[in-house]
Amino acid sequence: MAAELTTTKLNAESHLLLDQPLLRLPHEFARKNFKIVQKHVERENKDVLSALKSTANASLAGQDASKTVASLDNMINRMRGLKRKMETLHSEEKALHQASRKRIQHLQNLYEIPSLADVKYDEWSRVRLNRLLVDYLLRCGYVESARALAREKGIEELVDLEVFVQCHRIEESLRRKSTQECLAWCAEHRPMMKKLDNRLEFELRLQQYIELRRNGQLVEARQHAQKYLTQHAGTYLEEVNRAAGLLAYRPDTQVQEYKKLYSESRWDDLAKLFVNTHHELFSLPARPLLHIALSAGLSALKTPSCHSKHASSTANASSTTTSVCPICSTELNDLARNLPYAHHTKSYVENDPVVLPNGRVYGRDRLLEMSAKVGLDASQVKDPTTSVIYPASEIRKVYIS
Amino acid sequence: METLLEEHEKLSRKGNLSKSVEDVQKTIDLLVKARDSIVANQNSASVTLAKLQNPVKQSFEAINSDLKDVYKGLGNYSKALDKKFRDKPLPTTDYDALSSHPALINRAIAMHLLREGQFSVASTFLTDATNNPPRPELSSGTPKPYASLEVDLGIDSLKSESLRKQFANMYHILHELKNQQNLLPAIAWARENTDALETRGSNLEFELSKLQFVWLFTGGSNPDDARSLLFGQQQALGYARQEFAHFQGRYLREIQQLSGAMAFCPNLAQSPYRRIFHNEDAWDDLANSFTREFCSLLGLSADSPLYIAATAGAIALPTLLKLQTIMKEKRTEWTTQHELPVEIPLPPAYHFHSIFVCPVSKEQTTDENPPMMMPCGHVVAQESLARLSKGSRFKCPYCPSESRPEDSMKLFM
Fold first, then answer.
1. Distances in whole angstroms, Cα of residue A346 to Cα of each of A6, A299, A326, B255, B343
2. Which residues form the CTLH domain (chain A) (predicted)?
């Protein structure tokens, strides 16, 4: 009983391993939102103040009043524009705060559940599974499925559909060999990228350069390199040098290092690099959370019996008294094949185990109950797994320590 | 969690843009006022502009200081988040055996959606997954010995269609049973599968017929109406005559009980048979056992394996994380690739198979090293047995009895 209590106790604090991105993402977006505001304000601050100063000077120097009014109008319009932008960002901010709040409360609910055997935990855990599924579907780019599942389960506020939709759109644009969308994304997120290695933008510019060279636009390629690549020579000297060398090699070159630059697979690499940069920026794990949960769960549940060539005497489909083991069930069986099985230090068998002449071990009660159910009298028992009938006198007690 | 909630409360109350938007409006007001006065009096232009410099500058300063408050609020909330999750890093996925099998994961998800009755989501998912088949990623350290499986076991649209029909049927039967108190579809299903159910030792078919009899006998859908009660009892008798005959072999005693109960007809509630006729859980119990039998006949577990595995994973993760930290500190690696190095404390409901751990070697038994029972009834693993006996007579490590290795018997747990 004591053991049972310790294994069913729910420690919410340590149970939240999978839920960090749930709170991180809206927060990262709130920060991004704020950085955009900051940038706007900074620019208007500088421009409006200097415009104001020069207008004042011009006016002192005897500028026509109508011109002065015109430049004031200009400043007013700019400030109104700023206000509009800030109001939009403010309402986005509200939505993000609202989302964070809902999510904190959702996690808070877990703290009020004492036991893993509680029905409420079951509910909570089902919501979590649906969250993980939506996350997985979005990462695969199955947007419609994700949307449908989130809607059906009413968990729209706990998942981040739009974030992934945008991410997926840019990823696909790269696979379609277009750099535009991704460069725009880089520009939008540049204020946040400083702390991260900004390899993505360099690689995109390099790719543009490669495409120019591929099309034989040597002059344009050189100009492009001067404008976008040489400034990175400090960090990516080797790459910049190789890019310069590319001018001398035609797209059909067999020289390995240049052939690699011309390779089509660079687009896939770019797509992957973008996704990784995106996820890192928004504190999203690189792999689907479902993988993490399942790898751990499959191993924790797996036993040597699950992929044994002999049918297990317990938790198999042929007996009505036990439920089918989830690892043995068709859904997960192949998936769990490569994973390690759980470690146990104690045997775990049914009460009062007995053995049949064929070596199969069952709990005595289950065996007798089952035999009675199939209409045998007390002198006979039926092996629930193999359906062979034995005289009850041949049952032997087995001692499992 | 409370601190986080508080910190967030503070952030959304103080750390928002409303004040800075107000201050932007104030700047606009300043500019508009100056403009209007210049339009009114053109000669004042340079004086007004000179006077305008400082207020505009100050109002920008005010905006910036508003922003600083928001910045501080975000920073504090960031810190609270960091603190909350400091000791809860996302598990690294060095060992991710799943990313090389996206087709298998997709199949598991499709089946999960179907068995949960999410038919429309499932069909959207199948379309999505067929149009954009997943790209398998070979992660380092993940062997992929089942490459051919991927092709064979991808989402086979035909198979999932038949599965969809099966589950649609299951939900239809359950719906009739639970919401309409209509047992007939369930009984029809049980009758179709009578042989399979019987080999499993399931008495579902009889239990369903019995409940149907009880339901008729107690007046069907209008239990309070005296006339329908009388009519129902006649119907029940007719039903019993027609249907119970082929149950007589196995369930004679139960049938006798039911007929015995009829003698108490006017006041069954006070009779010894009360439990049979007034059991409110009977419908739910039967619905559960129907679901279990239905899934079992498909070779599936009654609860969604995906749900159980994901939940078990969440329970296991803290332990695995601790293991990871310790291994990193000590710079060791698992020595046994096929077995987890730590025990994961799962609740009893998550134990499915029997486990035998050899008391001598402390190892779990496997196909290669099965449990062996000595004539005295004690059990050790085969390898331990070989080590103990060295081929000749040996003493059981648990009791005084002696035996030869060939007298031991292989067990199937």
1. 16, 17, 21, 45, 10
2. 163-220
Mean pLDDT of B314-326: 87
Q: Which of B310, B318, B342 sits opposite A343 (nearest CB)?
A: B342
Whether residue A320 is predicted with pLDDT greater than 60 in this model: the reply is: no
Place of tokens 């002059």: A219
| Cβ distance of B367 and A319 shorter than 8 Å | no
- Residue of chain A with shortest Cα separation from B88: A17
What backbone phi and psi angles, to 5 degrees, belong to A381? -130, 150
Report which residue type is found at B318. Answer: P
Residue B343 forms beta bridges with which residues?
A343
What value of ipTM does the predicted structure carry? Answer: 0.85
Q: Is the dihedral of CA B70, B75, B77, B78 positive or negative?
A: positive
**pLDDT (0 to 100) of residue B91:** 67
Which site among B21, B28, B352 would you substitute to test the A interface, given the most A Cβ atoms closer than 10 Å to its Cβ? B352
SS3 content of chain A, % helix, strand, coil (to 5): 65, 5, 25
Beta strands in B261-396 (DSSP E): 339-343, 371-373, 379-381, 394-395
Summarised one tens digit per residue, pLDDT across range B78-119 is 999 998 888 777 766 555 667 778 888 888 898 899 888 888
Q: How far apart are CA A293 and CA A132, in angstroms?
A: 9
Q: Are B347 and A86 within 8 A, CB to CB?
A: no
pLDDT score, position B258: 81
Look up the pTM and report it.
0.84
A115 bridge partner residues? A9
Q: Which residues pair with A360 in a beta bridge?
A: B412
Amino acid at B72: K
Please tell me whether residue B141 adopts helix, strand or coil conformation: coil
Asked whether the beta carbons of A262 and A287 are under 8 A apart, the reply is: no
| Chain A residues lying within 8 Å of B345, measured CB to CB | 6-7
The verdict on A208 touching B (C-beta cutoff 8 Å) is no
Cα–Cα distance, A399 to A85 (Å, whole number): 77
Q: Report DSSP state, residue A337.
A: T
CB–CB contact B101 A335 (8 Å): yes
Helices A199-214 and A180-193 sit at what angle, rounded to 10 degrees? 150
- CB contacts under 8 A, B 211-230 vs A, are none
Kindly report, residue by residue over B220-273, the tens digit of the pLDDT.
Answer: 777 677 777 778 888 888 888 888 887 877 788 888 888 877 777 767 777 777
